Amino acid sequence: MAEARIFQDEFLCPVCQDLLKDPVTIPCGHSYCESCITGCWDQEDQMRVYSCPQCRQTFCPRPALARNTMLAEVVEKLKKRKRPADCDAGAGDVQCDVCTGRKYKAVKSCLACQESYCQTHFDRHEKFHSRKHNLTEATGRLQEMICQKHEKLLEVFCRTDQKCICMLCTIDGHKNHDTVSTAAQRTEKQKQLKETQKTFQQRIQQREKDLQQLREAVESRKVSLEKKRSLSQSQFRLTEA
């Protein structure tokens, strides 16, 4: 699996970091998606000097782009290679934001990029960003975890206003408020929830105990009434005799 992934990485466009689409090879030998290198060179039109985004070799005039047929065939075969069925995103799964066409199940979400990634695209993300970005388990609620005002992670809980805020909010609008980390607040809430569950469980057990005692009392009352009725019938027969 690792060898297959390394092999596939050799056919990634250095600009968009996805499998090459309509691959073209420029004079220095590096290959790109036709649209990616076209976009890069369009930005260099004013200078009339065009460079390779990888090796920075320059060209003048602007080289003509020709489709690399052999490379295109290899990439098409890679695209058709099937992944395990459990990689497909189901109805309740978070989809990879980078996958085009067929969507695969996301395994991680990046709070810095505000995107979710399948295993393949997550590996590419890690290759270029290493440990610099804040990651979380795949979630479809990324926007809810980011401060809309400062575009920072909501990692502080303001007890005064009962809401999650970012670090910049602590000095902008929430100064001198009672604040704790969201992790600390989550731990406290979980502890409170456990105590509440314990209390409710004790109440349920007490109610079940009271109900059982009531059933036993009713059953005892029935037995007593049955004995009295039987005794009365016996006395009535003796009187008639």
UniProtKB/TrEMBL annotation:
This is E3 ubiquitin/ISG15 ligase TRIM25-like. SUPFAM superfamilies: B-box zinc-binding domain (SSF57845), RING/U-box (SSF57850). SMART domains: BBOX, RING. PROSITE patterns: ZF_BBOX (PS50119), ZF_RING_1 (PS00518), ZF_RING_2 (PS50089). GO terms for molecular function: zinc ion binding. Residues 197-228 form a coiled coil. Residues 142-182 form the B box-type domain. Keywords: Coiled coil, Metal-binding, Zinc, Zinc-finger. InterPro entries: E3_ubiq-ligase_TRIM/RNF, Znf_B-box, Znf_RING, Znf_RING/FYVE/PHD, Znf_RING_CS. It comes from the Eukaryota. The keyword Zinc-finger applies. Residues 13-56 form the RING-type domain. Transmembrane segments: none annotated. It comes from Sinocyclocheilus rhinocerous. Pfam families: zf-B_box, zf-C3HC4_4.
